[in-house]
Amino acid sequence: MKTTITLSLLALSAAVAACKPKTATQEPVEQPSTAPVATAPSDTEAAPPPANWPDEPYRATRPTAGQVAELKLPQVETFKLDNGLEVYLVRNDKLPTVYMNFEFDFGAVSDPKTQVGLHSICLDLLDEGTKNLDKVAWEEKQADHAVSVSAGAGSDTSNLNVRSLKRELPAALDLLAEMLREPGMREADFERLKDRRKASIAQAKGNPGSIAGRVIGPLLWGADHPYGRIETDKTIDAVQLKDCAKVVGKLKPGGARLWVVGQISQDEIKQELASRLPEWKGKAPAKVNVAAAKPRLGSVFFVHVKDAPQSSVYVGHAGPKRNATDYEATDLMAEILGGSFSSRINMNLREDKGYTYGGRAGFGYRRAGSTFAASSQVRTDATGPSLREIAKEIATMRTTDAKPDELFRVQEGALLALPAEFDTPTSTLMAFRQLKFFGLPLDWYDGYQKRLRAVDIAAVRKAAEKHLRAKDFVVLVVGDANKVLGDLDAIATEKLFGAGGVVVLDADAQPTKRPTE
Amino acid sequence: MVPSHQLETALWLESDRMGYMLDLLDEKSLANQRDVVRNERRQRYDNVPYGRERFAVAEALYPEGHPYRYLTIGRHEDLEAAGVADVQGFFRKWYVPSNATLTIAGDFEPEQAKALVQKWFGTFPTLPQPAHQQIGTPALTQTVRRELDDPFARLYRIHYAWHSPPRLGGGDIELEVLADVLGSSGWGRLYKALVLEDKSAQSVSAYQGGAGHSGTFHVIVDLKPGQDPVKAELTIRRELEKILREPVSDAELKRVVVGTESSFVWGLEDVMGRVERLQYFNHYARDPGYANTYLQRLRAVTPQRVREVANQWLVKPHAEILTKPAAPAAGPPEGTGPKGPGASAKAEGTGVKKPAEAGDAAGKKKPAADAAGTDAAAKKKPAAADKPADAAGAEKPAPKKPADKPADAAAAKEG
Questions:
Q1: At what angle are helices A241-248 and A118-126 packed, to 10 degrees?
Q2: How far is CA B316 from the centre of its chain?
Q3: Distance CA A95, CA A117 (A)
Q4: Residue B45 has pLDDT above 70, yes or no
Q5: CATH topology of domain A300-505
Q6: How far does the CA of residue B356 sit from the closest CA of chain A (Å)?
Q7: Architecture of the domain delimited by A77-276
Q8: Is this entry keyworded Nucleotide-binding (chain A) (predicted)?
Q9: How many Å lie between the alpha carbon of B272 and the closest alpha carbon of chain A?
Q10: Which of B32, B154, B403 sits opposite A360 (nearest CB)?
Q11: Which residue among B4, B49, B255 sits closest to A206, beta carbon to beta carbon?
């Protein structure tokens, strides 16, 4: 009758396996010795006979759904404080909660090359306490009120966050004000945070998935690109406590944005902030211009992980900016290729070939641009074949028209996903925040449904021709050299993805020797 | 989640699955999904750090035949062995209306929704409710201690696990309080001792992981590279002994209560949070409106009572699973050292697979046991509310994360 069947089977087959009694050899030493317990159902237990499910013809037809309502987005109130902070408010009077997110236009893109991690380390340090409250006292105070006051840096922006029940908001904002006025910035916390990051990096170099996540950035964006630099022990060591005072000093209100959702009014926001932070003035840094991606096209990059049962594979290149005029067509095209469960790459690699638990492709938009990547974690012995299938799917997307039912599915999918994207006041606020982040107007969603519906097969094809490459890709494989390098050599020799050959890297994306047989 | 005008479509699909899915099950569709699940196992357990450890913990806690001994993902050899008849039998026994609860939340008229449920599910046959065996909390007669080599781990992990009460069973809330007192980031006792004072730990967590038959109480500590695990274990034991000896402070208890109340409120914002809350309480307490009782029970907890419950459960033999990390790959592999890929420098003990090693795909030695979905579900407090996305939120690849979809589809079975 339909296609949902395979999904549920997946859950079932595992469950069946889990129910079967085990007969394997006992390891006496390490068996738990326990009092007797009831045992699992035995193999011999008879399965129930097929039941008499009603044969009702109406079940063969999908019910007719009601009309989709035109999208009416909740309002965002915008206003400016005297100190220049731009405020965006989505009210939610149904729950006694308030969430505030202060957003500043600086982050890892402003890290010096030799100090990758600077902004992130310093913002992490900021929320470790204040002059009067050491780390423990600071955390206890938040927990006593069930509030959270935190700071962090992303790549293009840095943020301060306040999360609180309405009744505890004064306590939360007191802590925020104290943190901004007299941050702790203790040497001991600073050193501990740096050690922690180094340990995280050490762990990230341990398995294929996390290594690939670490190495793909410099390959797709370029090793010297602000989005492509990677944090190492060396760049962390280069960050000094005194650098953090400067970074934290950049958290000024002028031109920064405050995103608020909850049971709070404009007037309350103004009063609560002005009464606690009267001296908070000055201009936040203007946003940094970041260059386009410079991917290292044409090579098959490889990182060796001994005995990995799966390889992480990526095939990618640079992509368009988020504000490109053909965004909707590009998005729907990528959805057909590798965006949804029923996308070509997933259906091929997972449902047809059984190479993987899931495969995807799409454009990852950053503020300054995007990169395209098709990726999957595939069974080690299917590494080469998976790359070939991905290459085929990308080429097919470029050189042939999408089928009408494919387009219909992703178009409807995008339209019908909209209510869920604006499901809560918080997700609504985040959608607006993202528009602003990309430099798009706040009324961008007006007409979005119309723009989606206007995409036709020709537009999808055009987007594929324009935004997918015909040759020379970045390919990254992280897996077991013994089992996959042969395939990769063959693929490189055929120049399937370009003429750059196989390039062996370490987990810091640095060239290294090829593992010998 | 469907748009409200598509409610009936969702009911149509779900009723079709319940009544008629087996019509389309055959060797071919099963074979493909077997590959998919084995790939899932590789992705989520076999190719990541601390995957082996999850099997080992369950294996240490539960004897052969206990349903929690085997993680829901299954063993490769069992997945291979599962046939069409197994799936049919399982489906016919368990996936029946008398064993299912439907919870719907959203923007609709209740009477209309009831009529639709009647239309799509009301004519289904009344089938016998499958017998749910009652399994008490197992008891270990001695503490099981085991060391594991994990080629993907780079940090030493200490994992202690005790048997404990089932979800919403007596004593579970006291253990949840205790878990927060021990493991909370910043002010938790183990966090303070190991992360802030010793500076030896990378992370600390403690949680009461309830499941239907019985629960487990966990303490997990990851050490920074080069730290002494013996010393860390002594600190963990010191803090545990203190918990058994002295009541927690009023301030600590109050913090946990207010934090839990707050997360209940935050959890009400989204429809999924509401529907899951109802389903959760209905499933484990047989009362969808149990939230109020739960909060009353929480507010009635006393420091003395926490100590009593700790002395009831945490003094018993338990599991101690230690994961030894592999050394980082040394520079360019091979060349000067012993021949053969992977013969490069590694910590003593890694690489050589002992017979007892769990989680080996091909191994037919020890059953690579699995801790029955308990772990995935474990950390989920009834009211856990997601923090609104922050910093990186706007910078993640824009609107969608397609790769999550296949995973999500399958995630249901993990909890």
A1: 80
A2: 22
A3: 37
A4: yes
A5: Cytochrome Bc1 Complex; Chain A, domain 1 (3.30.830)
A6: 7
A7: 2-Layer Sandwich (3.30)
A8: no
A9: 10
A10: B403
A11: B49
